[in-house]
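Hi V.,

You were right to ask for the full record rather than a summary. Here it is.
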Amino acid sequence: MCSQPTLKTIILNPMKKIFQYIRISLLWYGRQYKGRWYQRLAVVVSTFLCCFFIYLVAVAYNFCWLFGESPSMESLKNPVTNEPSYVYSADNDSIPIGKFFNENRSLVSYKEISPYVEYALLSTEDERFYKHHGIDFKAIFAAMKDMVHGNARGASTVTQQLVKNLYKMRTRHTDGVLCKVPGLKMLIIKTKEWITAVKIENMYTKEDILTLYLNTVDFGSNAFGIRTAAKTYFGKSCDPKDLNAEQAAVLVGLLKATTTYNPKVNPKRSKERRNVVLHNMLNHPELSAGLKPMTRKQCDSLCLLPIDLSRFSVEKAYGGKALYFREYIRQYVSDWCRENDYDMFSDGLKIYTTIDMRMQAYAEWAVQKGMKNIQQKFDNHWHGTAPWRDEHYQEVPNFIENIAKRTDYYKYLAKKYNDNQDSIWFYLNQPHTVKLFAYGKGGQKNGYVEKEISTLDSIRYMVSFMHTGMVVMEPQTSMVKVWVGDIDFEHWKYDKVTAMRQPGSTFKLFVYASAFENNDSITPDYRVTDSYVSLKMPDPANPGKTKLWQPHNADGICTYANMTLRSAFARSVNTIAVKMGLKTGIPNVINIAYKMGIHSKLDTVPSLSLGSCDVSLLELCNSYSTVMNTGKHRDPVVVTRILDRNGKEIYNYEKNGPKEEVAMKEKTAYYMQKLLWGGMREGGGTVSALWQYVRPVADETEFGGKTGTSNNHSDAWFVGTTKNLVGAVWVGGEYRCIHFRTGELGQGSRTALPIFGYFMNKVLQDPLYERYKGKYPENPYK
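Predicted structure:
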């Protein structure tokens, strides 16, 4: 029976024979050659050098796949570093509003780097940088000598360190067979580093190598590259060219160990290391990079200075502007990148979006103004009592305790005290300093307040806030111009623009659209009587049985008036909406809702006519935009184009983005526009309250819209429409059981509508947005 081949039989035995052959050859040369001892030594040395050269060639070309791949010539000519992807707004394509990164890095050119950085770096890391060709043999022999005396130190040149940073030799290029042999792996890795360093030295200038190195090296505190390091440690306004000798010494000192010598973590060690670098600069005046060499007096005075970190700031992945929108962009672009083999966190993409930051600022101002007023009313409404109530307005038992059980702190305590409930709840009730959200006073921005309260009390405080979402689109292009996901991203990252909630009467848009679309005899002047409706419905609580469903109007009263659909829509009469839903058929309502922009699951039940199924604010805004775009629908556009790191366009929304499709007849769209327009003009219209907010701009722009309020006033909505802008606003509690008790306070016209009004008044008074003014299109189907 034949034995299976092993690493020993395939590789080690032949290699052993090769080395034995070399040894015998050397001995034979020594015996055959009868010259003087130094001549025999020369033969031995030359033979060794010849063998070493053969070894280098074998490693470089991965002979018999023994050593693993080395960096290709293409990767050497076009080295790729991990670069963040930048996000740009529609109104400023030169200054990014944020970025996505694994390694926070911004590239610089050689001219943008302070000479002090080069002075400090070469004095400390590679004093013969301008004399060697990638490998400093003098430093290697000195390191070997020190190793013999027990003082190990590095001998890598800046070029070799660049190779480590760029090509990750120890992780990416160790797939060779011999790399699996203990002891050989490190030798092969170092050999590859030497070979690659020499290649780089022959392909680039010294200035290019320095620039590449300073753009790739890790300075700690999530700062990669000299530009990010300068801004992190010395302020956002600090550029690499502005770094002085002391600052450069601090940053270069970090390179030995980014945690050990981090000035924020270990200020004492960092100062000691900085002073070592300063003395290196003093001792190497020939490396002053065109600067006047440092004097002893200057060095001593700089060594006495404390490290100034007053402007220290680590850039967060969630820093910047329009944070909710950027998080949506992250998800949206990540999906596209996955399908197209890009990495948005390291490929240096430039992502151009539809958001308008000037309009976004108006929206954020409107949200703060509106929500601050709503919160004051909400707090006064409940007078300090618990606002979490069930459908019968009874306090939900154990509501706060159940939230607490989902926190990390509860899980930590449960593990620490072996799930002992007495100990857990004891500590959950202990006061401690907590940083909590608070609205800004006067016209100031929202901020934070520190309170000495328990974990349970902090939960009670935070869940008592009302929340909102706002999104604004151009109906003709479906481009999203404004995106406000909530009142504060730091504390509530759950985006209310994409959250699923009951739309209430705003869903009536689809009921009436379906009626017009499927019955040519129905027009806005079609009349229906406002009378009670009773339907037998399946009872979910008792399978196989039915229950009576009797929808009622907001005020609980039926007028028995024979009113037009235009009036019924404006006054949001529930009974007529239910009748029209039954007349046109709920499946037809669902069908047109999907065509207009709804993607959420809709149930085939009569209550759908009153918005019983959850949808998102984005879906609703997009659907109303379909009406204002004369019945043509396109999914929301948030990205217009994407460029790769070389400036090549790899995505364009016109080629790759959502396509426009006809969702309804043009006549249906005009009829629906007439209903929306009538919301402000019909007697008793729920949208008429908008006049008080937009009257200064109403002469040149016509408004329409629809309010909506779900059961128990848990969700309040308003979708406002103009010829060129459609905006949707939602207001409600984080949990559905937290809400106002009366429609007088909690309905959409009292909560969501004012926010839209504040926003539109600001936008349309801005001369830059003259293009958004305009009256409703002339209706040819009167």
